[in-house]
Amino acid sequence: MNLEPTDEQRALRATVRQFLAEHAGVDAHVRQLIDDESGTTSQVWNGLADLGATGVLVPAEHGGAGMAMVDAAIVAEEMGAGLYPGPWLSSAVVAPRAIARFGAGSAAAELLSGIAAGDRVAAVGPLYSVPATLSGNGRVSGEFVVDDARAADVILTVTRHGEGLALYAVETALPEVTLGRLPGIDQTRRCFQVTLDRAPGRLLGTAGAQALSALVDDVLIVAAADALGAAQRLVDMTVDYAKTRTQFGQAIGSFQSVAHLCVDMFESVELARSGVIHAAWAVDEGDGDHRHLAALRLKAFSGQLAAVGDTAIQVFGGVGYTWEHDAHLYLKRLLSFSTQGGNADRYLELIGSEFAASVTAGQSQAT
Amino acid sequence: MDFTYSPEAEQFRTELRSWLAANLTEDIVAATRHPGADDQAFELLRAWNARLADDGWAAVAWPTAYGGRGASVLEQLVYAEETTRARVPNPLNIIGINNIAPAIMQYGSERQQLDLLPRMLRADDIWCQGMSEPESGSDLASLRTRAIQDGDEYVVNGQKIWTSLGHRADWCQLYVRTDPDVPKHQGISCFLVDMKSPGISVRPLVALNGDMDFAEVFFTDVRIPADAMLGPLNEGWKVATATLSYERAAAARLYAELQVDLEQLVGDLATARVGDRPALQDPITLHRIGELVTRIKFLEVLCLRSISAMLHGGDAFSTASLAKSVWAESGQKLAALAYDVLGPADNARWADYRLTARALTIAGGTTQINKNITAQRVLGLPRR
């Protein structure tokens, strides 16, 4: 039993945090890129590659850091805390996990080393909707939503394949690929409607439906870590404000009604942190129900973290309602995650149902 | 990152499980409801406590010299998990074992230790703790019960309230004001008082569900020997804070108890209906179960994080400060779900729990006071 981060993990967190603060700050970078569909600059992306952040999950044999999901979750937290708007989650997490889940490591060797080096950016889809279809000679067709598609050189496309599924690499520069940015409320994320019209693809690997389910678990866990980081940063900002903003001659944080709102936010964040470390550990430990249930619980709980954003803005008061203040960007980041893969209510009902089934079948879910 | 328990802790689990399998019977588990009001249940539990003590399972965290096992933190964690999951009743002297005994071990004379601790462990003597007063609840240090020295005795006058098992107690760890002229934390002393002393009268408090687990204790010119003082004069507050030391993994009871309750509730819901469909196919009921499953699991991880921090030198306090509130509110949600679906008639246990759960956010520090502590000591927000 040891749930403390290792020295390496502390260093990883500090390094990413410092890099984002120095080179991709909210004012200097995130806000400047609001109208930029790629969400990144080559300078920042190459910097992240130099740190090893783009290759965090790429196996060492392909030039990556070969780290675990627990480590990726730490990087994700910092990305969320810094509202990083580029394609890190897609290219550094979803793509390598997709390649691993589809057993495509050797077929995608070149792509993996490109991802680690920062030369190639990959996005993945569809994750939550009907897979794409295949026709003749590896031609892929479908309409689905993909995060970070504009920044991507290649879309790893989940397709039907006989009774199972396959993963195809489709280059985004092809004329058969069209991208349309989807309107949304979150200026720190980029989401696209992708249309593939008989686009030539390269088969990377095949797998059963459970591979996609496991991949979705992976994505939700790391995305929840991003949400955790955003919520944690909001708590820090809000508590700082409550300590320094004075009204009626005293800091507003000395009023119990305000202090208790801060504690409520802190409690949500610490519970979410518990879910993140447990789920990321469960993935690293192996597959199966244990891991899946951990992911469901995490999504169900962290999908409600937007309440932390709402509470933060309540504590900030009028200034928190302005465009100039960063609170809304954090709220929007949390709202994005709350609907990713379906809302929390759906997951809570599912968890209740799984639990009821295990109790009536006489199995304990404890431990 | 490692959530697994050490082989030693797992070995400890195996030993404890087999002892419980051989010794714990249904009548003992059943006696755990209303021991304050039911003489027969009380005596059954007293005998059970003695059996635990005689086989060394009553207070595993205590040093072996006093009848414990000197268990490691992980072993304590396993003990809390296993005894909770097996529905082992809390020791009658739970406050004595966890809170009073550590102070006696640290501040008591050798004679006090040898005379009092083994009898406490076997529940031969029942212990209560005289802390809260009618005007001193959350603000404990404002207590007003006075002790005035008279030769080699002290004379005590005042009143205590919310004294758990006060009406059954043989001994009381009593906190009194010995110096009214200094700041409130500095004028308190602690005594070990024989409850048969003349001038003590006890009135059981009847709780809203009919239970009698608490009492009011009145002190009128009660004379206690000066050598019954525990710790130095006017340093009672320090004695009170020393009581936290041994039972370091007690938080495990919080999540383990909720896990057991939830499994039993869902088992009971399997035959219930909501409207025209089975309760376990009702989306709102499933949603509420899902909420509880999730919060209880995360409470478990929160408690494990605190224990892990204790073991490996991290920050154990931040997470621990949240656990009690999360536990209490989850318990109330569980009780509400049970009552809302099962109603008052069919299942007395859950209807009763709907009422007793009301105490969860009050006893041992209200949720609001907990939030003040977290706000000030963890988040660093200013006091008014």
The CATH topology of the largest domain in chain A corresponds to Butyryl-CoA Dehydrogenase, subunit A, domain 2
Structural class of chain B: alpha+beta
Uncertain spans of chain B, ≥5 residues at pLDDT below 50?
none
Strand order, largest beta sheet of chain A = 1-4-5-8
Q: Any idea what the radius of gyration of chain B is?
A: 22 Å
**Separation of termini of chain A?**
13 Å
Largest interface: A-B, 50 and 60 residues
For the largest beta-sheet of chain B, the strand count, sense and barrel status come to: 4 strands, mixed
What report would you give on this structure?
The complex is a heterodimer of chains A (367) and B (384). By secondary structure, chain A is α+β, with helices and mostly antiparallel strands. In chain A, 51% of the residues lie in helices and 16% in strands. A 4-stranded mixed beta sheet of chain A has the order 1-4-5-8. Chain A has a 4-stranded antiparallel beta sheet with strand order 2-3-7-6, with no helix packed on it. A two-stranded antiparallel ribbon of chain A has the order 9-10. Chain B is built from 12 helices and 10 strands. Chain B has a 4-stranded mixed beta sheet. Chain B has a 4-stranded antiparallel beta sheet with strand order 2-3-7-6, with no helix packed on it. A two-stranded antiparallel sheet of chain B has the order 9-10. The two termini of chain B are 40 Å apart. Chain B has 3 domains: 7-92, Acyl-CoA dehydrogenase/oxidase, N-terminal domain (Butyryl-Coa Dehydrogenase, subunit A, domain 1); 127-237, Butyryl-CoA Dehydrogenase, subunit A, domain 2, CATH 2.40.110; 250-378, Butyryl-CoA Dehydrogenase, subunit A, domain 3 (Up-down Bundle), CATH 1.20.140.10. At the A-B interface, helix 7, strand 10, helix 8, helix 9 and helix 12 of A face helix 8, helix 9, helix 10 and helix 12 of B.
